[in-house]
Write a structure and sequence with these properties.
The protein has 521 residues and is of the alpha+beta class. It has three domains: 160 residues, no CATH class; 140 residues, Diaminopimelate Epimerase, Chain A, domain 1, CATH 3.10.310; 139 residues, no CATH class. The protein contains 24 helices and twelve strands. A five-stranded mixed sheet has the order 6-7-8-10-9. The chain has a three-stranded antiparallel sheet with strand order 2-1-3. Helix 10 links the parallel strand 6 and strand 7. The longest helix is centred in the last third of the chain and has 36 residues. It is elongated and about 140 Å long.
């Protein structure tokens, strides 16, 4: 970091601290919420949440998360209304800003610039400057004073903030309009904030139509770079690199280069590679005319096609697509995530099932849970955690939490009852019973089935039951002996009844048989 940048950052912090506590909170909330859904800003948002004491929650919900990533991975990705950032203590906010190192504070202006750039782009307004010029403008705007810095007037006012979902919808619509316009013109005009999807879609169209990819890149308010990439022509790029075409390109560029040089610009024409020709430092007012001349040149020298203009026609693939996309499949919420939601809404102690004294976690319990599950559970407990953390660290933190609070164990079994369930072979080992006994007790309803799992063998799916570990380990030896005694009693009763029935049958048969050696008178 240069001394000039460090000085400007200190000026920005001083200017920011001149705002009231409520104004500070409002500004930071707007910048935070403008970045929701932007994957590239996840780590910055996480760091600032921890440094400034902010938490994140879904709109209309009470449960909040210590970091943006924790909220996004648990429920933010499917929260239709988006999220909001809450400062845990507004009074301490300025103390947090003062305690931050200058390198850490640099995240705040960066957050502001990205949020303001996105809003300005969506509303079609001028973008804020970048680099040290933005830092100067940002400090001056916070002071509400517009001054001259060198030969640059910094009269920048951030646009009005709008809903982040509306921003993204506007951005997508604007991208579609730019792509359609580029197909009509035969060239695309891009700015530093233009979405990559616009350039990629137009380049793909050029490749399909076998046309050069002609692009105008704005380089500030006065100059631009215009280039034609011949890779999209396939083998026809050789036609555009013949000496005759190169002479025509020189003749085409000469007047525009002269005009730019008259205004002290370093304009020139050169071949970057054998298929890439570039017009450097062309005046912005001439750039689109240069692009139109390149389009006309390519139409003149390339083989004629069925359509002679750059009026876009849908491809067969696009025609075959249905006008209305099918609705996406509904996202099924995992049971463990639903269990966390129930604990939040119903209250922990009231909804928890009592744990038996003999209940212990299986030795391999860390392997039964994933990192996102562990991170979500730790976040539910009020600890800062992310699925990107090492799993061993998440397990260690959870073990310490369980040792400090006995309720955590009950919560763990309530949330991950299915993951920690007992399979049939482990049930027989825990209860010291035979397979026949286990099947009999399940059929009699003495051991309820939690759910079923399946495995594939010899080309067929086979189901098997699993059981709630709390129920299994809550069965005492006395209960087991009682079940066995009941079964033996039933066996004895059946045998006694069978013996009585057999004796009665034999007696009846003996009465029907005529006595041997004679016949009744």
């Amino acid at each position: 970091m240069t001394p000039e940048t460090e000085t400007l950052l200190k000026r920005c912090r001083t200017a920011l601290l001149e705002r009231s506590d409520e104004e500070l909170d409002t500004l930071l909330q707007r910048w935070f919420e403008g970045m929701i859904g932007e994957e590239s800003m996840e780590e910055v948002l996480d760091d600032l949440c921890l440094l400034l004491g902010y938490r994140v929650r879904s709109w209309g919900q009470q449960t909040s998360y210590a970091t943006y990533t924790a909220w996004w991975e648990v429920e933010g990705y499917c929260a239709e209304e988006g999220g909001e950032f809450l400062c845990t203590d507004v009074v301490l906010l300025r103390h947090h800003l003062l305690d931050m190192s200058i390198k850490q504070f640099a995240l705040v202006p960066d957050l502001a610039r990205r949020a303001l750039s996105m809003t300005a782009y969506d509303q079609g307004e001028p973008l804020p400057p970048t680099g040290y010029i933005f830092l100067y403008a940002f400090a001056e705007w916070l002071h509400d004073v517009m001054r001259e810095f060198g030969d640059v007037h910094m009269q920048y006012k951030p646009p009005k903030q709008v809903n982040s979902k509306a921003q993204k919808r506007q951005r997508r619509e604007r991208a579609k309009d730019l792509i359609a316009q580029a197909r009509q013109q035969g060239y695309v005009v891009v700015y530093p904030d233009t979405m990559e999807a616009v350039k990629s879609a137009f380049r793909h169209w050029c490749k399909v139509e076998v046309r050069p990819y002609i692009c105008v890149e704005a380089r500030g308010a006065q100059v631009a770079k215009v280039f034609a990439d011949m890779k999209t022509l396939g083998t026809l790029w050789v036609v555009m690199t013949t000496p005759q075409i190169q002479d025509r390109l020189v003749a085409l560029a000469t007047p525009y280069i002269s005009r730019a040089q008259e205004q002290q610009q370093q304009a020139r024409l050169h071949w970057e590679t054998q298929w890439l020709v570039i017009f450097e430092e062309i005046l912005m007012e001439d750039a689109e005319q240069v692009a139109r001349d390149l389009v006309a040149l390519s139409l003149d020298v390339l083989p004629a096609r069925e359509h002679q203009t750059f009026q876009w026609q849908p491809s067969p693939r696009e025609v075959a697509k249905p006008k209305h996309k099918p609705l996406p499949e509904p996202v099924i919420e995992p049971e463990w995530m639903a269990a966390i939601g129930r604990l939040r809404t119903q209250g922990n102690e009231q909804s928890l099932q009592p744990l038996p004294e003999a209940l212990v976690l299986p030795d391999d319990w860390p392997s039964l849970l994933t990192s996102p599950q562990l991170a979500a559970f730790l976040t539910f407990l009020g600890l800062s955690a992310s699925a990107r953390d090492l799993k061993a660290g998440l397990v260690e933190r959870l073990q310490k939490k369980m040792e400090a609070d006995q309720t955590v164990m009950a919560q763990l079994f309530e949330v991950f009852a299915s993951e920690l369930a007992v399979p049939p072979w482990e049930l027989e080992e825990l209860l010291k019973c035979t397979t026949t006994e286990r099947k009999r007790w399940v059929e009699e309803g003495k051991i309820p089935v939690l759910n079923h799992r399946s495995f594939r063998k010899h080309g067929s799916e086979h189901d098997y039951p699993v059981f709630d570990r709390r129920v299994v380990l809550g069965i005492s030896r006395e209960e087991l002996e009682g079940w066995r005694a009941e079964h033996q009693a039933r066996i004895r009763e059946r045998r006694r009844a069978g013996a009585q029935a057999a004796a009665a049958s034999r007696k009846a048969k003996s009465q029907e048989i005529t006595p041997a050696g004679g016949q009744a008178d």
